[in-house]
């Protein structure tokens, strides 16, 4: 049995406390009026003047094209801002006033978006681990049963993490923030594209869908965990077989619900834009982060003397998955980009124009973190067996995939007013603390090694 | 001078692996093991030096990437600039996304094909080459361990039978 060390517990509490402080500072310092917002941007321009102008001047020629296309891109960018500012235009009228109000909304969104990105990121890790676990169950994998309790521990975070994400979505529906612009009736009234999608993008339907996804995922997690524990004291394999069947059924539900979840919770922050492989793209990010966290928790537990039968070959296999899914993520990232870049259709290409103009460093930086680092660090077969090496690569991968979610959510919610400051780091620390606390608390509740899994002997002798 | 070689047959890869470990532990030098299919971990158990094929593959991949870049730059930018999809441009880097699939494919193509060719050359394999394996059954369902006899023949034979060999032959080998 694993005991939650006091040092780790206190560490997670400190992370949560510091995180709450950061989140609170973010909310308190968000501007209440247009004047405050303008003053904030003005003072920021003085302080970060250099940075700001640099990104602006670099931004325009960033899109690789000649005169015609770059003009089109400019137009698109203009069109996007206008759409986002539609609500403001309805009240205001004059362009300056609408721009200022738009700025206010962006700055007011900032602490919410920071909270949402971090909440979703840690929730996504737990969900990815659940999918990975279901794949192992459905495939009746022989190498992984020794890691099942680790995976079950991580998926325990699905419950608190899912509830937090749901509450944030609920608050969005209640107009506490403007993360989802299509929830604003004023915007929809002036926007024909959103009107055409209003059958699907309906606040009540949106919440019902979210509840169905979360309900399905949590139900599978709890049931599978119960069967997994019951199998330990069982005298036949019936629990194991039942777990195999429900895991296969869950995977069907998961693939559909995960894809729809990515449209609902992430893609709809840009309600005009759509991408048909978005579900896969989010899935790739989710999977690579999930496998990384499984490897990190397993390595940590091993370093503390637990999981004595987990050997280098298990870590090697996890590192292979980290390597493979990193390449898979890059493949999807590029596929999505290239088709949109090539066809250059205004309503699609705005997505990348804003990212390349205003988010240059995070947008291209994450490709270095998510592709170059894992590929070069984990390419050598022997390096995949060196635990600290896998751990360091894992940290880079997690940072890169946080940036990925950041790049998905921020441009539509805070526009060019982004930075990674106290609210963002506070939110990461808070959810990291909550994640660690919940996961390791769940790990204490059952023996770390399944006793009567029919494949446990194969897993113990696993050697590549 | 002729030397004696022992051929031990096995019919299971797990038995073979354990046998290799025991023969190595008994300080005998295994000349070669013939298998109908690759056995994972056999090279490590036999104490063979790690393969350098992966390094050559990486180098071939880099060559492929370079060839693709130079080729596309020459074809699409320098020799005959083309306007495709409304993107006239005289710069490689600005049109790079369109070339990435080609760069990727040629990297894989070079790495894969040249690695296989290197493997054949290194293994001295070419078309119509006479087979070197001493027994036909090693292409079907048997594994063959080849050990040169230096010390006590019977002791080695007993050891091999003990490790689960299904057949043991002793052959005279002409020295080269």
UniProtKB/TrEMBL annotation, chain A:
Keyword annotations from UniProtKB, A to Z: Membrane, Transmembrane, Transmembrane helix
Cleavable signal peptide: none
UniProt-annotated stretches for the region Disordered: 48-70
Transmembrane region(s): 12-30, 113-135, 156-180, 200-220, 240-257, 277-301, 321-341, 361-379, 386-406, 418-440
Name by which UniProt lists this protein: Quinol:cytochrome C oxidoreductase
Lineage: unclassified sequences, metagenomes, ecological metagenomes
Organism the protein comes from: marine sediment metagenome
TrEMBL record, chain B:
A Pfam family the protein falls into: ActD
Family matches, as InterPro entries: ActD
Transmembrane segments: 53-76, 96-121
Keywords for the protein's UniProt record, in alphabetical order: Membrane, Transmembrane, Transmembrane helix
Classification via PANTHER family: LIPOPROTEIN-RELATED (PTHR40394), QUINOL:CYTOCHROME C OXIDOREDUCTASE MEMBRANE PROTEIN (PTHR40394:SF2)
Name this protein carries in UniProt: DUF3341 domain-containing protein
